[in-house]
Every structure is written in C-alpha cells, then in structure tokens.
Amino acid sequence: MTADSQRRRIERHPILEPLSGEEVDFTFNGRTLKGRRGEVVSSALFASGIRIFGHHPEDGSSQGMFCANGQCSQCSVLVNGVPVKGCIVPLEEGMDVRSMDGLPQLPNQSCPPYSQPVEVETDVLVLGAGPSGMAAAIELGRAGVDTLIVDDKSEPGGKLVLQTHKFFGSVEDCRAGTRGIHLARWLYDELSEHDSVQLWLDSIALAVYSDGKVGVRCPRGYRLVVPRHILVATGARELSLSFPGNALPGVYGAGAFQTLVNRDRIRSSERLFVVGGGNVGLIAAYHALQADMTVVGLAEALPECGGYYVHADKIRRLGVPIYTRHTVVAAHGEEHLEAVTIAEVDDEFHPLPGTERSFRVDTLLVAVGLDPVDEFARKAEEFGIPVLSAGDAEEIAEASAAMFTGRTRGRQIACSLGASDRECPSDWREKAEVLKQPGGKVHPYRVPEHSEGVFPVLHCNQEIPCNPCITSCPLELIRTEGHPILGIPEFEGKCSGCLRCVAICPGLAVTLVDYRKDNQRPGVVVPFELGEWRLREGESMDLTDMKGEVLGKGMLRRVTKAPGSPQTLLLHLDVDASFANRVAGVRVQDPSQVEPLPEPLPVPIADDAVACRCERVTAGEIRRHLRGGVRDLNELKALTRAGFGACGGKTCKPLIARLCREEGIPPEQLEGLTERPLFAETRLGFFCGGAEDR
C-alpha cells in the first residue's frame, strides 16, 4: 500500500491491535486501488483517500458516508454493475466499483426458478446479537429453550465491538470496569456453551408477517422463521440535526465514526468537531483522541453536558474545549466538509446572532440522541405475536443496563414458555432501574487535605451507576454513603498503594498521591490511555485539575502498566506539593490546535438544510407544505418524495417529526407515515430462491 493509505490506516492504537488481511486490487471509476479482502467497500475507499462516492441526480450534491450501518443510502455505489450500499458489501479481488452518477445502466438479470422458502421453527427468535440480545439468549440457553439469534453483522456484539473504553455499572451484574470489546467476547464465549442456542450472522430480518412468520435473509438463502416468541434487541438508530450543510460528506453520526475508526481501523479525520454532549458524543471524542486525531471542540445546547461528568471531564483534561449552551448552525464546504460554525443559544435553543464561531475541520460528528429500532416489535404486536423488547430497542440506556434488561427478558420468556420456574428475583427490577440511571445529582468536589502517606483521590462527584473502585479495593477502604452503586465513593483508612482503583475506574477519575518519599515533591499516579508513543520519561507535562484547568508542570518519572488492565498506562509524576492533591490528568492537545477562525463564516438560511438525504428534500420544502395545511405524512411523501428513498424513511422520519414540532403541530393532528412491508431493500428474485443478496 502507498504511504498515504498507510497513514489513513490505524497501525498503532493504545487499545486495539492493527488489522491484518490479504491485500487485493479493485477499481474505482477505472482507477486501480488496493484494499483488504473482506473489509467493506466504503472503508477501502476511505483508506484510499476517497470520501466522495458520487453525486445525487436531484441537485448534483456530493455523496459519501453517513451512517456506516446500512441504514441510509448515502454511500451507494455500483459494484460489478449492481447498485449497493458500500458500507455493507465486503471487498473482493477485482471488484469494479463505480459512482452512482446519473442513471446507471443495470445488468440484465433473469429471475431464478421459484423454490419454496425453507421454514425454521424455534421457541424464541432473538433479533440482534448485541449486549441485550446475547444476554437474553444466555439466560434462555440456561433454561434449555430452543433459541435462534439473527444479526446482520459478521461478528456478534453489536456496538460493544466499537467500544474501547471501560464500562460503568455493577461489577457483579454486568462486569463493570471491562472494556466493551472484551464484554462482546465474554458474552459470545458464554453463549457458545449452550447447545440450544443458534446464532445466524450476516442475516437480516426483512419482515414480520401476519401469519406469525418472520422473513430472514441469510447467506444460505431466504428463510421463514416460525417462533413461539420474539425478543427484539435491535438497538437504536442515531438521530440527526437539520442545519445548512448537514448532508456534506464529512458529517457523520458518531456511531459511523466509531465503526470506521474502531472496527475498520481507518483514520478517517485530521480535525473534527462534535455536536452533542451525551455519553455517545463524549465517548466518540475520546475515541478520536485515542486514534491520534485532533478534537477541535464539542458543542452541547444544554447548560451542562447530559453525559456522565467523568466522561466530559476526561476530554477536558486532555485539552478538548466544551461549549455548553451552543449548537451547530452550519457546515461549510463545496464537495466535502471544510469548516463548521457554532453559536450560543437562548433558553428556547434559538441561536443568538453575533455569537457565531467557526472552526476549520474535516469531520463533524452528530451525536444528538438515539431512536429505538422498534418497527419489528410494533409489527409483531399488530399481528398478535408474543413479543418483548430489550436494550435500546426498549429504552435508550447504557450497555450495562442493556445486558441486565436482556437477562431479565430472557428469564421472563423462559418462564412464560414453561421452561423455567425460576422467576426473576425481586431485586432485579430495582437493579435494572438503577443501571438505566443517567447522570444524577452532583455533589461538592472535595480535595483531600492530607500531606503524608499514600492515598487515592476520587475525582468523581456525580451520582452514576458505577462501583468498580469500591469492589477493587482489597482493604475495603473505598465506600459510599447511601446507595451502594449510585452513591459518591469516599476513601478512608491506610492505603497500601496497590493502584487497583486507579487501574479499573471507567472514567479514569482516580489518581494516587504518594508523600512517603518527599513531602515537597510527592509522586502522583495518573491513568492514561492514549498510547505510550506519546510519552517521554523525564519530560515535563502540563497537569490539569478535574475540569481541565492547567495547574502547573510535572515531571514524568516512569510509565508502568496498570495491574489487571495492562492497556491502561500509569504515569508516575513528580509534582509540586501545592497542587498535587488536585491533579486529575495531563493535557495532550495544545490550545493553539483548537482555536476558532479569526472571523466566523457566513451562515446560510436554515431552510437549506437537507431533511431527506435519499431524495434531497430540504427542510424549507417540508415547512412550506406543513404551513400549507398538509397533515398526512403520506401526502407529504407524495408531494416531496421525502421517505421514498432507499433507506425507507429511517433517517428522515425523526427529522420530519422534529420539523412538525417546530411548526407547533400537535402529534395528534398528524397522520403517520405508512411503513414499508420490508425493513430492508432486497431484490425480488431473492424471495424466489435466488442467491444471497447483500
């Protein structure tokens, strides 16, 4: 591969191993390129520096990546003459990939001889092999229930396989303190122990039918699954925002970014900005730092970030500015994203003129919430099929909560089928509610006044469901007042300096201060997960407090690996005693890297924002018809084509709902959009017994 393509591939990462694979040749618009066999076409194009895959026939706008999950159609290309979504098609030797510019000449395809679909009976069909789906299937497997899991990915784990950080929650109930990538492997290993559970990968549920059957597209062909019970564990889709330039290549959902970076090891960006201060946005910013990208800033419309404070503080300490009470008002660029403009908002979330700031970036991550993938559950309920939901398909929460609710639903279904008489324990409901808790009450931050001995400092003052620091202490010196999981941890006693609490904390919010050798220049141990190659023993480093303010300099004496978590590094620093107890982290981004442009760029009118990506319908067109009295979303679809595209309304439906709310239209006045009978596009010949259709 060329030096440029190697630069675009992540060859070193503090947590993830580099990918290996056979190198193959393919062409894009006649140009020969190289990629890895089996990686998706869109990632191979990204690795070759190609971010624009084609142009939309409606207005000539450039098209590229957006969801990286097969939900939209913005990455559509022609592969060997067939229109496909580039983010779900594995690369093979000799593939001819072309842009979808203009109206393509499709190959002649004859329909295969009809064959009767194969029917498969099962007690329980689980849709989705993410944390909730696998946890439920494990519980069903323990009860000996015949269970089939269907997932559209090539490996189980769902979003866990994208998560390099340690998870919060309870150590006992969901292995808190374990990284998402390791949780996925642990769940799969446990699932594999149960003979009554089958797992179909690269398979997608296409439809739920009125006769109680579920159509599934899998590598072996079309299958009709006949379940006694369905569990929907399909996760959630990312919501988007309506602003000028929101459909430019370079504007992605945070999940798409994590897929490119953490799954496909593609260094997709040089400089990026994040909009949305929930856990998804905060974690995506941290993942970008781990992959050696510059995070220029993060904007959150609320007065405080909605995610856990320890996540926000973690990126502040590393040098990422967080702009609260701000939102994005425009993305700028001709063919691709070149800059972003944010502005302060008032109490009604309206941008305040004169407060705009612009930043040079090549990527904008939109992380403004999630929408449950619940169409399977709604259709099953309509047809009277016994169905439950778990994880984000039921309620948006953290993966720790998804695992626990999946386990609960598995136990409930096993009991309803008569396979188990072990009802859910009485405390499970309470535990599930605790694990679903968002960031709660913030307590005053108390800095220890000790100046002798060795002791941990807990830079954590928000009530969140998390207890690894408590359970890790061998001397049981860390406790909470009040709730055992939600309470604020406090230290009291004589510490041995074992560093286990520093190593396991998911928020990297525990440091260790040691006055035993020198009470004027004590040692401070700080956790670090951005790679040993950034560090030089003997160098001076900027030290920050909990909120990212620089306290002063410290000298890096040595670097060790954390006990029980070797991918976490421990920085042993010599620090001035005047601020040693307040040190919470080290700064890695220089302030000059994240400065705004001297003057803000001009902001286009809001009506230019794209509401329907597939058909290039603008927010202004939608507003005009709503103001003209249209209240039937099917009529709106006929008038504008919004919802006609290949994604089936998955990306535009939430945006249209938002526009209706902004126009002051009550939901009860709206006639809902009629859903398509199939949840994913499929060639008709496939239902007749044709070959696998990706």
What does this molecule look like?
This protein is an alpha/beta fold and 694 residues long. The chain folds into 5 domains: 1-106, Ubiquitin-like (UB roll) (Roll), CATH 3.10.20.440; 118-236 and 372-435, FAD/NAD(P)-binding domain; 241-368, FAD/NAD(P)-binding domain (3-Layer(bba) Sandwich), CATH 3.50.50.60; 454-589, no CATH class; 607-669, Orthogonal Bundle (Arc Repressor Mutant, subunit A), CATH 1.10.10. Helices cover 21% and strands 25% of the residues. The chain contains 16 helices and 35 strands. Strands 8, 9, 10, 11, 12, 13 and 24 form a 7-stranded mixed beta sheet that branches. Strand 17 (294-300), helix 8 and strand 18 (322-324) form a beta-alpha-beta unit. Helix 3 runs parallel beside helix 10 (399-416), helix 6 (254-263) runs parallel beside helix 7 (279-290) and helix 10 (399-416) packs antiparallel against helix 11 (428-435). It starts with a helix and ends in a 32-residue tail after the last helix.
